[in-house]
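Q: What residues go here?
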């Protein structure tokens, strides 16, 4: 993949604007597209590698993540594998989940997160072991900060449809209330969505919600997700706006798209040429239900605050536009009706604090 030399670097701080800084810090946020394996702080990776006596190919906490210079998706996924290899026992999964939800979530105003979990990214670790640690981390993070969360188990599209089906069967066998649905991730060109119809059908029969990544794929893949995989959400989906008819259907059906401005720009997987923010603006203008998140925050040198900061600078969006993205997140969440009503109330209480008053801006957090 080619990386344009004049491409803006979204992983570094952009212009400092005090109004934007106050707004993005105080804004309540909903996180529907954040991978657990991609949200481990580099210092934690180094700690866990030491604990398990695993080498990191000579990398240190300072250079583990390349931030804005991954050669291609393949290089990014190799680093992801390295991270996955050091997270091994219940305590490890508890730690990375807790840190992701607190330091990487609640500290940035995230009130609710649906965590993408990738069991195939931790070879040799039993799925129930992963769940025990992750669920304990979710409960402790909620007790300490109030953040609510659920789980989306990611099927690996680089493996076969049969592999994906057997993971769904395992998810069903070890059913936990915290597991709300399944997703489809890893390298898109190696596993078009049509290969996973059977696995997604099994998930649907078990009452699991469904989403899938469609970042570089054509608009037709969105139809495959909706009609053949039974998805009610799309991760990324930037190319949908290339097809007015499919876009109109998604607007009509209020299909949510979980967009990730910084990671998609740095990875340039969206293929949009001049940045995913332009695509995101087109999607919003078309009337699509767009939400914003960070994908793999420390791996791309970002966090939930920074993704909103970048949109504010790139698109001139301020309180009204950014607040709408958060409200979209409430609508797109997989909480049940009462959970969603509760989340909406929490979001509105926080948004009220960012509302300009007569002659002052009351942006302070409670
Ligand atoms: Zn993703």
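A:
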């Amino acid at each position: 993949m080619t990386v344009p030399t004049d491409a803006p670097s979204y992983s570094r701080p952009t212009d400092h604007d005090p109004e934007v800084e106050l707004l993005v810090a105080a804004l309540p946020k909903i996180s529907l597209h954040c991978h657990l394996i991609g949200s481990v702080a580099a210092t934690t990776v180094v700690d866990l590698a030491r604990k398990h006596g695993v080498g990191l190919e000579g990398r240190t906490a300072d250079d583990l993540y390349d931030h804005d210079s991954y050669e291609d998706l393949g290089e990014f996924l190799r680093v992801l594998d390295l991270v996955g290899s050091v997270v091994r026992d219940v305590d490890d999964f508890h730690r990375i989940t807790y840190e992701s939800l607190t330091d990487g979530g609640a500290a940035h105003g995230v009130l609710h997160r649906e965590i993408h979990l990738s069991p195939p990214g931790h070879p040799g670790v039993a799925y129930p072991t992963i769940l025990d640690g992750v669920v304990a981390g979710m409960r402790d993070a909620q007790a300490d900060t109030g953040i609510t969360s659920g789980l989306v188990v990611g099927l690996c599209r680089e493996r076969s449809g049969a592999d994906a089906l057997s993971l769904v069967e395992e998810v069903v066998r070890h059913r936990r209330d915290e597991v709300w649905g399944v997703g489809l991730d890893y390298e898109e060109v190696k596993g078009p969505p049509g290969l996973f119809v059977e696995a997604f059908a099994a998930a649907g029969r078990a009452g699991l919600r469904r989403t899938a990544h469609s970042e570089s794929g054509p608009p037709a893949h969105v139809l495959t997700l909706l009609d053949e995989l039974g998805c009610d959400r799309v991760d990324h989906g930037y190319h949908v706006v290339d097809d007015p008819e499919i876009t109109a259907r998604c607007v009509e059906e209020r299909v949510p798209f979980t967009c990730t401005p910084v990671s998609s720009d740095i990875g340039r997987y969206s293929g949009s040429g001049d940045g995913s923010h332009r695509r995101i603006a087109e999607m919003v203008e078309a009337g699509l239900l767009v939400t914003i998140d960070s994908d793999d925050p420390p791996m791309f040198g970002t966090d939930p605050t920074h993704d909103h900061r970048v949109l504010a600078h790139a698109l001139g969006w301020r309180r009204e536009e950014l607040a709408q993205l958060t409200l979209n997140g409430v609508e797109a969440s997989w909480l049940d009706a009462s959970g969603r009503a509760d989340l909406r109330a929490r979001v509105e209480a926080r948004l009220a604090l960012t509302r300009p008053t007569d002659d002052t801006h009351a942006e302070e957090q409670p």
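A: Context that may help when evaluating the design: The pocket of zinc ion is lined by residues 33, 35, 185, 213, 235, 295 (CB under 6 Å). Confidence is low (pLDDT under 50) at residues 1-8.
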